[in-house]
Design goal:
The complex is a heterodimer. Chain A is of the alpha/beta class. Chain A has four domains: 2-215, Pyruvate-ferredoxin Oxidoreductase, domain 3; 220-403, 3-Layer(aba) Sandwich (Rossmann fold), CATH 3.40.50.970; 420-489, no CATH class; 497-606, Rossmann fold (3-Layer(aba) Sandwich). In chain A, 38% of the residues lie in helices and 20% in strands. In chain A, strands 11, 12, 13, 14, 15, 16, 17 and 23 form an eight-stranded mixed sheet that branches. The radius of gyration of chain A is 27 Å and the shape is globular. The model of chain A is unreliable at 1-12 (pLDDT under 50). Chain B is an alpha/beta fold. Chain B has a single domain, classed as Rossmann fold, CATH 3.40.50.970. Helix content of chain B is 30%, strand content 19%. Chain B has helices spanning 38-53, 68-71, 90-100, 112-116, 120-129, 173-179, 193-205, 231-237, 287-299, 317-320, 333-336, 340-350; strands spanning 60-64, 81-84, 105-111, 133-139, 142-143, 149-150, 184-189, 209-215, 238-240, 242-247, 262-266, 272-277, 303-310. An eight-stranded mixed sheet of chain B has the order 2-1-3-4-8-7-13-9, with helices on both faces. In chain B, strands 10-12-11 form a three-stranded antiparallel sheet. Classes of the chains: A alpha/beta, B alpha/beta. Chains A and B meet through strand 10, helix 7, helix 9, helix 11 and strand 19 of A and strand 2, helix 3, helix 5, helix 11 and helix 12 of B. Bound molecules: thiamine diphosphate (TPP), iron/sulfur cluster and magnesium ion. Iron/sulfur cluster is lined by residues 33-34, 37, 39, 68, 140, 144-145, 218-221 of chain B. Residues 67, 111-113, 140, 142-144, 151 of chain B line the site of magnesium ion.
Chain lengths: 607, 351
């Protein structure tokens, strides 16, 4: 995501706030507000205005409160905004609290019967007879609740000046193929808009105005982007067990596979998907498939990761490629299953008993959920080891504006695999012999028709010939070689993204979904006359760029979304001589980190 | 599943099989199990069966969990890839392998601890999916490798060497497999090589999960008086359901039987398994009867062996997956990475 340079301080234009505010819709889970919120967000996007959407939902199917926040920002800042400017208070359960939490001057759109004007008088109220309007829109009682959602879209459109054509386009797109739903929703949106036009007097300062900052962009969530990564990486074996927030990765992929990976001539599949009985089985299947030569992966979240520990260690020790997506949520235990977190970094880094260190990729944008997914498969096969991709609920499930995803620019790398012809030529094969000195050995896959091809994979101690061994030297040599392989990986994993400010004495290190908040925070800090340099880590093991970055600065804030400063501590282990330079800023409420949080924390220190 | 076909009769070439390999080519490393361990007897029969069938070793994968039994894949078919996985999780690995390469013939070796305790869930699910593989449980009623604790297949009232009596009912893996619609279920005994080798051969012809629960005595921890998994107990109590003979697809059926005394089951690959009636009139295609027979045997303390249940019509896992003929593991980039036009189309839909 590019930095859109200017700061948003200049938001008021002749008393008007244009393209720089946030809308929060408070509804009840399962009430069908998702589609209306998408329509609203898309309509603004289609007007060329940068938007982002965050769904704050409960671990529940229907009945509990949920909040959807759309941030509209002309400068392209897409992190969570802490302040709500326009509230749509549909949910009676939370309406009072929602209204109380607004700042003075905010706007509240609510059903007239909730009488929210009695709760606060220092905000602008627009009270709408939603039930009456819904009754006018349809005589089917069951549909009225659903249509209320599209009515508020119409009201907001009128108040903010959202182009009616864009609303219509978005509705048609949202309900594509469902003619009746399109008609009903068009009626509802227009009811809302007409009613607002006739009955509301604009008494706030928020407006949208057409821009051209979204042309060529897409809207996508990180799980779908990762699914596309798997599709274009040529993944063939998919093993998963449902868990929020990762399920949609495989579910979306399945739809794409059915569409694009069925052999046209035979109607047969070039992929296999299995919904396993649990995550132990999912990782076992992924490793079995990887061992047998397929591009396999599994996708899960924290609780699943915990279950995969033993097998992941097996994969590391016996050197089997597979990819594990961890779409992180809040732990420990069930934790807050529908909230975001970056607290699995340490546990995945050395997942399993014994000395283990895994390769971990850390996408910071939805574009990277895609590109690092593609790369993960290459790395897994190149290094013959399980590779983790750690995203999180915020990246994975929320809607992000993004550049069009690029077609992979490199051919697939299947790593060091010997065929029967290779074996014939070489006349020798030892599975765990480090022929090239990079720690990566050659493997064969089952079914290879050559007397030398077979070897025995075991999680117990083994020598270079893959024979059982308890000899101390064999074990030490094996562990040292695995470390050598890990060191080699430093040269292959994605390098950090670096943005140096020449004047800066202070730096920020962050990773993952904190990225968008850091970009915005740096702009706020610049306005506060504090230039900061920025390094965004994209992978473990660390690369040389980290040391260089830390060396050149006086103080470094490591920003992350967990309690224990997990990345900061890993960097301290990597660069003990610089340990005291590294301070930590941790955000772990389960809500996505905001720019304001980072800025305040840094200004609090740097003062 | 058998790789090549030849018309050469077995008997004409005493030292090599129909693909020109010797029995030694089907051996593995030297066993490190205790002398007399039932598991070694099972290993010998696997070597014999695969040799006699003339299966190409490179087409085979050997998988296992953890335990003395799970060590045995190292002791046969040294020319086949082996995967000694983690405790109780061999079925998931086998499932993954089957998706990656459906042309492999998979042999899984597990123990009663590995399958009936820690691995019971995965066992149930591989059976439910009908993943094509031979799943052998070398059942000794104890955890051999951790020195003789009871396993979940130990019979009620059976005694450990230390005098500890088992007061929990056993899990009957065959009964459970049949309950789960397993398509091939057999029970045998390491001390009955003739029956075992026929069952092994038949299971190699089956396309689906073949469960072979083989009583395989642990001479070190469970072969004493008071054990129901000892050689002596099994010998004294074994009641074969039928006399089995296997006729591979590449051989003619030559034996003549009196009408009505033999049931001939044709297998997926054209091989036959002939079941000659003994005392019982047992039909292994009747699921309900199979379950009832097992229950009755339990109640009466009988040790029934033979082919308990077979259903050659149940579709196997990889067939259900509707996979392309070429193994997924070997599909080239041009097949697995859709062209740029596809990505463009998807991107347009997201704009
Ligand atoms: C996760 C885990 N827990 C415990 C063990 C210890 N362990 C090794 S073998 C075994 C039992 C094996 O019993 P069984 O499958 O019956 O095999 P046998 O040795 O009797 O052939 C146990 C509990 C282990 N290896 N892994
Ligand atoms: S302990 Fe028992 S099961 Fe293990 S090798 Fe010895 S006899 Fe066999
Ligand atoms: Mg046992």
């Amino acid at each position: 995501m590019k930095t859109l340079a200017q700061d948003s301080a200049q938001k008021v234009d002749k008393g008007r706030v244009i393209n720089d505010f946030s809308i929060q819709v408070a509804t009840v889970n399962g009430s069908g507000s998702q589609s209306s919120n998408s329509v609203l967000m898309r309509s603004i996007f289609q007007m060329g205005i940068p938007v982002s959407g965050k769904n704050l939902f409960p671990s529940n199917i229907a009945g509990l409160p949920t909040w959807f926040t759309i941030r509209i920002n002309k400068d392209g800042w897409v992190a969570r905004a802490e302040q709500v400017d326009i509230l749509v208070a549909i949910n009676p359960q939370t309406a009072h609290d929602d209204v109380k939490s607004l700042t003075a001057g905010a706007v509240c759109i609510s059903p007239i019967d909730l009488k929210l004007d009695a709760v606060r008088s220092d905000i602008t109220h627009y009270q709408v007879p939603f039930s009456e309007l819904a009754a006018e829109a349809t005589d089917q009682v069951k549909l009225r609740k659903l249509l209320t959602n599209m009515i508020y879209v119409g009201v907001i459109a009128e108040l903010l000046g959202i182009d009616q054509n864009e609303i219509e386009t978005s509705i048609r797109r949202q309900f594509e193929g469902k003619g009746k739903a399109i008609d009903l929703n068009l009626v509802a949106a227009s009811k809302g808009q007409q009613w607002a036009k006739a009955n509301l007097k604009k008494d706030d300062c928020f407006y949208v105005e057409r821009m051209n900052k979204t042309s060529g962009k897409i809207i996508i969530d990180g799980n779908e982007a990762a699914a596309l990564g798997c599709l274009f990486a040529g993944a063939t074996v998919v093993c998963w067990y449902p868990i929020t927030p990762s399920s949609s990765l495989c579910e979306t992929l399945i739809e794409y596979l059915k569409k694009y990976r069925i052999d046209k001539k035979t109607g047969k599949a070039t992929f296999a998907v299995v919904q396993a009985e649990d995550e132990l089985a999912a990782i076992g299947m992924a490793l079995g498939a990887g061992w047998a030569g397929a591009r396999s992966f599994t996708s899960t979240s924290g609780p699943g990761i915990s279950l995969m520990a033993e097998f992941t260690g097996y994969g590391y020790f016996t050197e089997i490629p597979t990819v594990i997506f961890d779409v992180q949520r809040v732990g420990p235990s069930t934790g807050l299953p529908t909230r975001t977190s970056q607290a699995d970094l340490l546990s995945t880094y050395c997942l399993s008993h014994g000395d283990t260190k895994h390769i971990i990729l850390l996408p910071g944008t939805v574009e990277e959920c895609y590109s690092l997914a593609v790369q993960a498969f290459d790395l897994a096969e190149r290094f013959q080891t399980p590779v983790f991709v750690l995203s999180d609920l915020d990246l994975g499930m929320n809607h992000w504006m993004a550049d069009r995803l690029p077609y992979p620019d490199k051919p697939i790398d299947r790593g060091k695999v010997l065929t029967a012809q290779d074996l014939e030529r070489l006349g020798k094969f030892e599975r765990y012999h480090d022929v090239d000195g990079d720690g990566i050995c050659y493997r064969t896959t089952p079914g290879t028709n050559h007397p030398l091809a077979a070897y025995f994979t075991r999680g117990s101690g083994h020598n270079e010939k893959a024979q059982y061994s308890e000899r101390p030297e064999d074990y030490e040599n094996l562990m040292k070689r695995l470390d050598r392989k890990y060191q080699t990986a430093r040269k292959y994993v994605p390098k950090p993204e670096l943005d140096i400010d020449r004047q800066a004495r202070v730096g920020i290190i962050a990773y993952g979904s904190s990225h968008c908040a850091i970009l915005e925070s740096r702009s706020q800090l610049r306005n506060a006359k504090l230039p900061v340099s920025y390094l965004r880590i994209k992978a473990l093991p660390f690369t040389e760029e980290l040391r260089q970055f830390v060396e050149r600065l006086d103080r470094i804030y490591v920003v992350e979304q967990n309690r224990d400063a997990q990345l900061r501590d890993l960097i301290r282990l990597e660069l003990p001589e610089h340990a005291m330079k590294l301070q930590s800023i941790c955000h772990f409420s389960g809500l996505p980190i905001s720019a304001r949080f980072v800025t305040d924390a840094i200004l609090g220190e740097e003062g | 599943m058998v790789a090549t076909q030849s018309n050469q009769p077995l008997s004409s070439e005493p030292h090599t099989n129909r693909i020109g390999l010797t029995q030694a080519d089907y051996k593995g490393a030297v066993s490190t199990l205790c002398d007399g361990c039932g598991h070694d007897a099972v290993t010998s029969q696997i070597i014999k069966a695969f040799y006699e069938l003339g299966i190409e070793p490179h087409r085979v994968t050997k998988l296992s969990g953890i335990g003395c039994s799970s060590k045995t894949p190292a002791y046969f078919l040294g020319r086949a890839h082996g995967f000694n996985s983690v405790h109780g999780r061999m079925p998931s690995v086998a499932t993954g392998v089957s998706m990656a390469n459906q042309q492999l013939l998979q042999v899984g070796i597990s123990g009663d601890g590995d399958t009936a305790s820690i691995g019971l869930g995965q066992f149930c699910h591989i059976v439910r999916r009908n993943v094509p593989m031979i799943y052998i449980v070398e059942n000794n009623g104890v955890y051999g490798l951790t020195k003789g604790q009871f396993s979940a297949t130990a019979d009620l009232g059976s005694k450990l060497k230390t005098g500890v009596v088992n007061d929990l009912p056993p899990i009957d893996l065959c009964g459970l497999a049949i309950e789960l619609n397993c398509s091939f279920v057999a029970r045998s005994f390491a001390g009955d090589p003739k029956q075992l080798v026929s069952l092994l051969k038949a299971s190699a012809s089956h396309k689906g999960t073949s469960v072979l629960d083989v009583i395989s005595p642990c001479v070190t921890f469970n072969n004493h008086e008071g054990s129901t998994k000892s050689y002596k107990y099994a010998k004294d109590h074994e009641i074969p359901l039928h006399e089995l003979s296997y006729v591979p697809f590449y051989e003619q059926i030559t034996v003549d039987y009196e009408p009505g005394t033999v049931q001939d089951v044709e297998m997926h690959d054209g091989s036959h398994i002939m079941l000659k009636k003994l005392g019982l009139d047992y039909d292994p295609s009747n699921r309900i009867n199979a379950l009832m027979t097992l229950q009755k045997a339990h109640a009466e303390g009988q040790f029934l062996t033979g082919l308990l249940y077979i259903d050659e019509s149940k579709p196997d896992f990889t067939t259900l997956m509707n996979l392309v003929d070429e193994p997924l593991a070997h599909l080239p980039e041009g097949v697995v990475r859709p062209p740029k036009a596809v990505l463009d189309e998807i991107m347009n839909s997201l704009m």
